[in-house]
Amino acid sequence: MMEILYAPGARVVIRDCEWIVRRADPCEDGGYILTVDGLSELVNGKSARFLTRLEEEAGAIRVLDPAETRFEQDLSPGFEKSRLFIEAQLRQVVPADDRIHLGHKAAMDLVPYQLEPALQALKQHRQRILIADAVGLGKTLEAGILITELMRRGRGKRILVLTLKSMMTQFQKEMWNRFTIPLTRLDSAGLQRVRNNIPGNHNPFYYYDKSIISIDTLKQDNEYRRHLEQAYWDIIVIDEAHNVAERGTSSQRAKLAQLLAGRSDTLIMLSATPHDGRARSFASLMNMLDPTAIADPDDYVREDFRDKGLVIRRFKKDIRDQVQQEFRERVVRDIYLDASPEEEAAYQALLEVPFTYRGEHNTERNGQLVRIGLQKAIFSSPAAAEVSVQQRIRKLQAREQPTDDEQREVQALQSLLLALRNITPEHFSKYQHLLGLLNSPDYGWKKNDTEDRLVIFSERIETLNWLREQLQRDLKLKGDAIRILHGGMSDIEQQEIVESFGKPESKLRVLLCSDVASEGINLHYLSHRLVHFDLPWSLMVFQQRNGRVDRYGQEKTPIITYLISRSANPRVRGDQRILEILREKDEQAYKNIGDPATFMKVHDTEAEEQLTMEAMAGGVPAEDFDARYQPDDSNEGDELLALFLNPEAAQPQSESGEEKELHTADSYSLFPDDLEFAAQALEALNRDRKQVDFSVNRERRTVTITLPDDLAYRFRFLPPEIYPENSTLVLTADKQRFEEEIRRSRRDENAWPKLHYLWPQHPAMQWLQDKLLAQVARHSAPVLVLPDTDTVKQALQPDESVFLVSGLIPNRKAHPVIWEWFAVRCRAGRVAGLGPAENWLQQLGLDNRLPNRAQPVDLGQLEALRRPVIEAAKAEMAQRQQAYSARVEEELREQLERLQQLQQRQLAHIEKQLAQSSQAEHFKAARREARIGRVRKVFDEYQQWVRDTLTIEPVPFIQIIAVFVMER
């Protein structure tokens, strides 16, 4: 009997507050541990756990029996109270299918390919996915769509996002502006604010349900790492996820990510460069997504990941037919320039240095690699080369007894220093061509045009510092008009510079970037011109750099310019030609292939740079270098990712007709749109007494609300940046106007929109729904006595009553699996039929034009029908439950068998490794016990998760929402 009383979904009153039961787990005292969420106003949004034996002894627990629902006739004009109550209840219903219900309505110009990651993830019982789309395709937006869908399904209350220091504000704003997901930024300033606002022994990750933090901040702060280990989330997002892969050593980042992977049901990873080409490194990411999949991290095959849907990856070429408007085809300009005599002298001086290795002059590989390292600096700038040469001299002179060869190298290096110092700005041809370019009418850049800012990339910070000093003088720029962005800056400083670059009112005109700025950040809002002051030595860096301005949302044609030096010295010219080939291969990847890593196949920027250096050090001719690194004939190239990609994944090609119907679904509503619902709800709240100070402008599609105390209280737990100015909240349902506001906000000092997007996910809309639900007394349902009109007669006969009933069956994880609404027809004191509520409501056409004449009704007759109605709904839900259980029984059996097979493979792999070990037997026995214990724990937890997910509760929760009769 206890199972029936405390079925998940049931409403209970505990300590005079109403709760909904999420879980009912047996307790050692013979009772149950109830996990509940608050429904009544005092506890709304809160979760709690109660021991039923203790609460029952105190007489403080009561199950609300739907057969005892109280009826209250609705006397409001136009049945306003009932319509809003029914609508609020409808909005509580969560979808249980694999279609997009809300994400496609976010504040963005949706392109079909952006739905695919969410569609692929929703087909899985557990949403764990690596979104590995190429640079600039909008991975953040794709993650936002999936997060929105999970929040709509009640599986996104607690969210944690890990990202780079420079991207925290950008990611936070994108999630709020587009999806109204309120992430509290826990950067160094945010962490200090938390320390000031909550007691020292409280866990900040529980104080804020949704937060964003840098993984580097976490790894440096032991206190917050401890808090992390004690918290659990519904969704964890790891941006630039390649940074948390194991790369031969178990880094702090990788350890943190592995810890977090087990602290959440949903894990979303984002990376355009998801692995470094090594099976073990990529396996570490895949094991975070699914720890049961890979037995041998050095050897795995597609069969290991059948139907798992763990990865999705597209390139610009794959979605080009969908994005003609959203992506502008880039213009690439190569500026070839001859080295000046002073530069040629420096090149010659470099070639004459007798480089040493371990104290001896070395003309082979090791000595040449030292030369190439210095040559790389010279190719950047004389300033960078001078620093590198001085470092080499100091290293050699620091030895106790330098050899004769080392002393000769130092003398030659000092000659090289003199040659470098002769390359003044006037004799530095690359810089002179840059100046000519920036001043050229053909290039069109105007330093005073705030809407046309310039991005210049260089690998070396010394080059950036030199450029800042020279450009400031030669372009007559003020100090705040040109700034440097590099990885050594603090999180606050990096975010401030990126923010400033996107604000039209800031004085910043030129941004000098090291390659730290080539990962993730958006520089395209006011910039479409990008200059490579030096050519990258890695193909992947080309893509990362260019993706800062050539990306989704760029409104102007990206102009990419390469400054390409050419020396008359054959040896140096050959090395420069190798860099030119890299640039040509990048263009080939952009136009035809997609993945630049396809050429060198090492999938890591440092490894690609090393291959380039090795080729130069070995004197490899440029033509041989070109031939050595060609894409596969299949144009696939990435064998590791290919193992995980699902060739049969849903790929919607349009947003209309059958395709839209197939992939998206619009929830049924009694109101034409969210604006009308909000307007009528606010008007109803003020019907008897003024509760909310608000105004509605239907022409401009806005709702303005002065925050009442209870709504202001909710904002206390949201990011401070989104708190409405002067406590006045302005919501708009006009997407175009809101997009304009996002653009305008970049001119604002705080760079956050003053308008808010009006849609179901906004906290104010959720507050409004809670207010409407509270308008109807606890455990009550309204009775609507409808007028005798032609429309009403089509749906309701004079001698019948129709009960609107909700039926809910969750799984063991308290996630709704079956949630149906029924219209139960009753005639002559008995149930006469049952059908889908949506069809009946559409037929009824319940709107504010129906007059409420408030004719009296016999509530006693309706109350006598409560139990038969509930029994009819239960019988219908039982059929749904049986059909569901029959459908998933085979799936559950197959999944558990598959997990058993995978476990055996992992255990066999452990035995194989131990058999090859030469350790003493007692050491191997300890290792065996520890590793087998870890494997069994992982599989036991996963098997339990599968059972809890696919097994639904035996007893549905039934609720009478409303009753309809016709006036006599």
Folded structure, characterized:
This protein is of the alpha/beta class and 968 residues long. The chain has 6 domains: 1-64; 85-91 and 782-968, no CATH class; 110-313 and 644-663, Rossmann fold (3-Layer(aba) Sandwich), CATH 3.40.50; 331-335 and 429-637, Rossmann fold; 341-421; 674-759, no CATH class. Helices cover 43% and strands 17% of the residues. The strands form 6 sheets. It has a 7-stranded parallel β-sheet with strand order 9-10-8-11-12-7-13, sandwiched between helices. Strands 6-26-30-27-28-29 form a 6-stranded mixed β-sheet. The chain has a 6-stranded parallel β-sheet with strand order 14-21-20-17-19-18, with helices on both faces. Strand 27 (800-810) and strand 28 form a beta hairpin. Helix 14 (365-380) crosses helix 23. The model is unreliable at 649-658 (pLDDT under 50).
CATH topology of the largest domain: Rossmann fold
Q: Give me the CATH superfamily of the largest domain.
A: Tandem AAA-ATPase domain
Silhouette: elongated
Number of domains: 6
Count of beta strands: 30
Widest beta sheet: strand line-up: 9-10-8-11-12-7-13
Q: Please, what is the oligomeric state?
A: single chain
**Could you report the average pLDDT, rounded to the nearest whole number?**
86
**Using only CA atoms, what is the Rg?**
33 Å
- Just give the CATH class of the largest domain: Alpha Beta
Corresponding CATH architecture of the largest domain: 3-Layer(aba) Sandwich
Q: Counting H and I runs of at least 4 residues, what is the number of helices?
A: 35
What low-confidence regions span 5 or more consecutive residues with pLDDT below 50?
A: 649-658
Strand composition percent: 15-25%
Fraction of residues in helix: 40-55%
Distance from first to last alpha carbon: 42 Å
**Structural class estimated from helices and strands:** alpha/beta
Largest sheet: 7 strands, parallel
